Amino acid sequence: MTQLGKRKLEKLERLAELSAINAGERGESLWREAFKRLRRNPTAIIGAGILLLFILIAIIGPFFVPYDEKDTHWIGQVSARDNIIPGPSAQHWLGIDHNGRDEFSRMIVGAQNTLFVGVVATAIGLIFGCLLGGLSGAAFGLGGKRGRQLDNVLMRFVDMLLAMPSLLLAVSIVTILGPSLPTVIIAVGVIVIPTFARLLRGSMIAQASAEYVVAATSLGVSRRKIALTHILPNSAAPVIVQATLTLATAIIEVAGLSFLGLGNPDPSVPEWGTMLNDALQVFEFAPRLAVFPALGIIITALGFTLLGEAMREALDPKLRK
Fold it and tell me: pLDDT tier at 318 (50, 70, 90 boundaries)?
């Protein structure tokens, strides 16, 4: 028997011993244990509360806004020349903007647009990043020499994306395709692809040397089945955590592009980044018009970040408390 065969046999015997020892014990899945830790983590509770409130406002809020977000019915109350823009009142909870539109209605509808763009952009980056990272990780860990070559080609493409600053890459994509909301979604989705690809690849390569993979290989399971049914599911946890954190950065990136005037060309459509840019015209005597969307962006990004960090702590064995 070769030295490699002896090692595999020893690992199989060790797995059999562990199975016999733990046969009478009832274990819990990684996600169930992580959920229990999250319920006891104040950071996770605060982050989840912020996100739940934001999601509820974004989904059902637009159905209950008091006025149409594009209605300029109150333009007669505004005098930009005399620096008169009515503030909060019983009729308009957040006041009106310099175009005579209800600020509260625009904030609520803007929350929906911001959430939609951030989620779709993150989903695009997650799907294509996982395709690249999963293929690369499986090829590197189980594909032999040809697999290493394929991994090298895919990772050099990812390195090209990483070589450019994210905001510059997003601006370049929007400039080439033309300013619009779908273009912003594509741009933000592209700049987060390398993050997911690198993370999933590294996780899969680490899992490829685990004992359960050696056991499955010794039993004659095909490489493709091992990659899809064994390695990939056990490598998904850090990717899911990163998706939560990426949502925070995606919302900020979307707001940044809209603030630069690269988002929806129709300024009457409320989006928090566009509202920030619009508020600069009257910032000297109506700073509240910039404060409200800025606070919305900050608090929402904070909620995603708090929940993502708590999930990372709950799922990472090195960071568990």
Answer: low
Report the predicted TM-score, pTM, of the whole model to 2 decimal places. Answer: 0.81
Give the burial string for 90-116 (b: 16+ CB within 10 Å, else e): eebebbbbbbbbbbbbbbbbbbbbbbe
**Burial level of 60, CB count in 10 A (0-12/13-18/19+)?**
exposed
Task: Please give the Cα distance from 53 to 61 (Å, whole number).
Answer: 10
Using CA atoms, how far apart are residues 184 and 256, in angstroms rounded to an integer?
A: 10
Beta carbons of 129 and 192 less than 8 angstroms apart: yes
Torsional sign, CA 264, 270, 275, 278: positive
* Structural contact between residues 104 and 174, judged by C-beta atoms closer than 8 angstroms: no
Q: Closest by alpha carbon to 270, among 48, 85, 41, 116?
A: 116
Q: Which two tokens stand for residue 168?
A: 């510059």
Where does the chain have alpha helices with state H? 3-21, 30-39, 42-60, 103-142, 144-163, 166-177, 181-208, 211-218, 223-226, 232-234, 236-259, 272-279, 288-315
Given a contact cutoff of 8 angstroms between Cβ atoms, the answer to whether 8 and 212 are in contact is no
Per domain, the residue ranges of the chain are 30-63+86-315
CB atoms < 10 A from the CB of 309, how many? 18
Question: 254-269 burial, b for 16+ CB within 10 Å, e for fewer?
Answer: bbbbbbeebbbeeeeb
CATH 1.25.40.340, domain 30-63+86-315, yes or no: no
**DSSP label of 76:** G
Is the dihedral angle over the CA atoms 27, 31, 32, 35 positive or is it negative? positive
Give the confidence band of 24 by pLDDT, cuts at 50, 70, 90.
very low
